[in-house]
Every structure is written in C-alpha cells, then in structure tokens.
Amino acid sequence: MKPSFAEKAAAWRAEGRRVLALLGLAAAAGVIAGVLTAVFGHGVLAATALRERWPLLLVLLPAGGAAICAVYARWGGECGRGMALVFDAAAGRRDKVPARLVPLAVGATWLGHLLGASVGREGVAVQIAAAGASLLTPGLQAPRDKRRLLIAGVAAGFAGLFRTPLAATLFALELFHTGVAQYDALLPAAVAALTASAVSGALGVRPAAVALGAEAPAFTVETLIALAVLGAACGLAGRLFVELLHGLKDRFGRWMPGAYQRIVLVGALVALFGLATGSRYNGLSEGLSAAALAGGSLYAWDWLAKLCLTAVCLAAGFQGGEVAPLFTIGACLGAVLAGPLGLPAPLGAALAYAAVFAAGTNTLASPILVGLELFGGEYFGSFFLVCVMAYACNGGHSIYPQTPLEE
C-alpha cells in the first residue's frame, strides 16, 4: 500500500527538522572552531615571535619535550593518539573526540613553537575543532548525522586557521577514505567552514593570500611538460615526507622505546641544529615560504632540510601539524625547480605549495582550491595539472590513517 500524502508530508517535515538541526549544530560547531582556532593561531604566532626575539630559547627544547611527555602521561590518556582519535570517531569506533584534548594539544603545540620544534599547527586545529563538534553530537540521533557533524568540525578547524573555507570543506570530505569524497556531509561541512572562517576572521586571523605578480602561463607543449614534471616532483616529495614520518615513528619506537628518552634526545639534536642554522628550519619557517613566493633567495636544499626536521620532530612526539610544513616544503621545492623548468619562481613556489600538500595528504580537490583561494583563480589550469600529477605520483600514501571506503 502506497503511503498517503499526509504520511509523505509528515516524513518530509521530520526530514526537514533533522536537516535543520544538523545545519544548526554545524553552524554552532563553526562558531566554536572559529574561536578555538583564532586563540590557538594567535598563540602560535605569539610563541614564534618570542622565540625569534630570544633565539636561545632553543636550548630549552629538550626540557620542553620532557614536560610535554609528563603532562600527557599524567593527564593525556588516549589524547596522545591525536588525529587517530578523529578518525576513530568518524568511523564509529568511539563516541567522540575527548574535550581534554583541547588544552593538552594547544598547550603542547604552543610550547613546541616557543622552544623551536619544527612542527605545524593544522593537525591540532582540526583536532580541537573536532573535539568541539563532539560536544554537540548528543543533539543528534542518527549515527550518520553524528559522523557528518564531526566531518563539519574538521572542515571548521581547517577553515578557522587558514581562512580558506572552500578548500577546508573539500579537505574534510576527502580526508577519511582513500580516493573517496564523502559528499553526503557537503552541506554541514560548508556551513561549518564558512562560519568558522568568518568568526576567526572577526577575531583577527588573516588568510595567507599572496599576489604572485606572474601571468598565468599559456599551455604550450613546453609549459605542459614543465608543469607535469613539477607535479611529479611534488608527488615524490610528498611521498618522501609520508614514508619518512611513518618510518621514523616506527624506528624511534624500536630504538628508543622510552618516550622521555626519545623526545629529549631528539629535542637536543634539533636545538643544536637550530643554533647552527640560525633557526632557519625551526617552528613554522614562514620566512622560507615568504621568500619562495616572493622570488627571494633560497638554498637548493631548504625544502629537504625542512622536510627531514619536521618528520624527526613529529616522530619523536612533539605536538603540532603537518600541513603548514608541507606548504613550506612545497614552496621551497617549487621555487628551486622553477628556474630549470622555465617557470617564474613565485608561480613555481605557489604551484608546489599546493601540490606537495596534495601528495602528503592524499587529497586532490582541496589542494587545488587552496591554490585558487590563496593565489587566484587565473591559475586554475596550472594548479589542476600540477596537483593531479602530484596526487597520481604519491602512490596513495598519506600522513593520515586513511582507509578504503569499504573498510
């Protein structure tokens, strides 16, 4: 027997209420994420400014690492698993991302940046935003809606920190499964990302948009070959970072099973390296990205030094993110390769900025949108080709514990 019109209308009303509740909570998650990421981002910049003012703070990095270990051992519980908790919650293996992760991850990242650990910030921004979204999941009944709200929280964390809401939306949809975007969460993710970006912007967070001052290249055969080669190089660089990071985590665990021993020893080595190199590769290394995008002077090995130091710090247990270092690695690599490939250095840096991000995270649409939101839509064709090549050449590797959708 077919349902009556009244029954259909009742079902439509129920579905409408469910969708409105989800979108309302997504907007609330965006507000929470916007505030949290603004406070977090300003704190990272303040810590960086203090370290640049007093470079000898580097000598305290081993002690800072020991303090991070002690705090996590006493109060962290599972929080040391970081992004794995977000993936577990999205897969339904746990109910939520614990709220105590917020002060622990934020404090540990601030301390790491203050003392010179070569780490980023995006991973922590996503984690704390996901924890904020988890506070709202009791307002939803269906497990699929709780998962969508968590995905919206991830989008909000990325958007609140980087002020790129379109890229953030696609990043959250692409993040969890290999080669699959979860478009059923598109609307709540977009609402949360746009809200978070607006809130963090009102609180003083500025996007890292750059005017390249270079014309979009004409697609001649020579240019297409150059862009393809650049994309392939970025794919290999991203894969190198992923494999080095995961490999060092495994080897450090076997060579130095004690968490204190591991982070203190690595902290001491990183501090010595930082003192010897003038802190060139410590912290966010935003000076390297700025120089690359402006066509400034760089060493040919800057990208590799930043890659190795970041992998070492994260593998040792310092808290932070991987995406900002991927941006820096890419910008430096692109600036170095641009000359031999016949491309303007700022354009090569911008293209690789997005493409190494694509390779390191095993995402595609989001990096293309990062390029468009930060550097301009006139370069769409170039970003598309370079990011596609990087994505194709990374071998399906990711800094995150992605799984095939069927798993």
Automatic annotation (TrEMBL):
MF term (GO), any: chloride transmembrane transporter activity
InterPro entries tied to this protein: Cl-channel_core, ClC, ClC-type_chloride_channel
Alphabetic keyword roster: Membrane, Transmembrane, Transmembrane helix
Cellular-component GO terms for this entry: membrane
Transmembrane domains' residue ranges: 20-42, 54-73, 149-173, 185-205, 217-239, 259-277, 298-318, 324-343, 350-370, 376-393
UniProt-annotated location(s): Membrane
Membrane topology: Multi-pass membrane protein
Main location, first listed in the record: membrane
Entry-linked PANTHER family: CHLORIDE CHANNEL PROTEIN CLC-E, CHLORIDE TRANSPORTER
Name the UniProt record assigns to this protein: Chloride channel protein
Organism, scientific name: Candidatus Faecalibacterium gallistercoris
